[in-house]
Amino acid sequence: MSLPVQPAHTLDSLPTDSSRWLIEGLWAEQAVGIIGGEPKSGKSFLVLDMAVALASGSACLGRFAAPKTARVLLFSAEDPPALVRSRLDGICQARHTRLAELDIQVITAPYLWLDLAEDRKALTDTVRELQPKLLLLDPFVRLHRIDENNSSEVAGLLGFLRHLQREFHLAVALVHHTRKAAHHLRAGQALRGSSDLHAWGDSNLYLRRRAHQLTLTIEHRAAPGTADIPLRLDGENGTLALSVVENSPQSQSPPTPNSAIENVRRTLAQAQAPLSFQALRQACRIRTASLCQALRLLQRQRLVLKTPLGFRLAP
């Protein structure tokens, strides 16, 4: 039996607008990948921030917009549910949303071994039932009992996660540790274990701490990446959330023209109801990047609010 073949020009095209992103510039639609970093570098905070951003439509790290909201499925193998809840509450407070309004589903099983057939089936059944758009697994070392340096064993486990992605059209983010004393290596090469982990990712995020500065490096298979974005862990009323350090030279983006901000404000003022990101973009007739910047600035100034129904002017 021969393999299926079709002319190259009839293959599906990649989307060119914001629909290619689950979180703008940070994680691609239906991408699998690694969130890597040393212990205590903020990986779990980043994972939870991604969950809040996608479930609420807010900006992850205060910078990267989620064009549309979707369900998130999370398994945190190391943190007790009460700590997960506390951290999510803090991030929600920083993003001006409420956890009770977000569709974040947490797997509360005491363990999940992805090298066991019965646990793979349980996860597959859960994904089939809930149909999330993002599956977050934290961390890799607590999800298996294989040899991380054995490429064939690692490839088999990653192949299962890729199968989930393709069958259910979801994104998968896998938290993993980097090796000790690997600062001289490229971020992806510093991951612990088999090189298959780095090669597997469509979108990869790496957290590194140099002296007192925490930085984020973004890597994509099919889009430009960004290196050394400075982050900080901010606390407010006993809560914590990661945010981009906006006044650092590495974090600067081209300024949003005042006309774009006024365009958004005028459009929302004339709207009879909250507008979704896509509806607002079409009404304003501006680029996705310009709209993301304008909304970020307006939300930071508390002039625009993100509601479950879309964006609206603050009262």
Description:
This protein has 315 residues and is an alpha/beta fold. The protein has two domains: 17-251, 3-Layer(aba) Sandwich (Rossmann fold); 258-313, Winged helix-like DNA-binding domain superfamily/Winged helix DNA-binding domain (Arc Repressor Mutant, subunit A). It has eight helices and 15 strands. It has a nine-stranded mixed sheet, sandwiched between helices. It has a two-stranded antiparallel ribbon with strand order 1-2. Strands 4-5 form a two-stranded antiparallel sheet. The termini are far apart. Residues 251-257 have low confidence and may be disordered.
SSE layout and pairing:
Blueprint: E1 21-23, E2 27-28, E3 32-37, H1 43-56, E4 59-60, E5 64-65, E6 72-76, H2 81-94, E7 104-106, H3 117-130, E8 134-138, H4 151-168, E9 171-177, H5 196-200, E10 203-210, E11 213-220, E12 226-236, E13 239-244, H6 258-270, H7 277-284, H8 288-300, E14 304-307, E15 310-313
Parallel strand pairs: 3-9, 3-10, 6-7, 6-8, 8-9
Antiparallel strand pairs: 1-2, 4-5, 10-11, 11-12, 12-13, 14-15
Helix pairs in contact: 1-2
Would you summarize the structure shown here?
The chain has helices spanning 43-56, 81-94, 117-130, 151-168, 196-200, 258-270, 277-284, 288-300, and strands at residues 21-23, 27-28, 32-37, 59-60, 64-65, 72-76, 104-106, 134-138, 171-177, 203-210, 213-220, 226-236, 239-244, 304-307, 310-313.
* Number of β-strand runs: 15
- Uncertain segments are 251-257
Strand order of the largest sheet: 7-6-8-9-3-10-11-12-13
Structural class: alpha/beta
Number of helices: 8
Distance between the termini: 65 Å
Under CATH, the topology of the largest domain is which? Rossmann fold
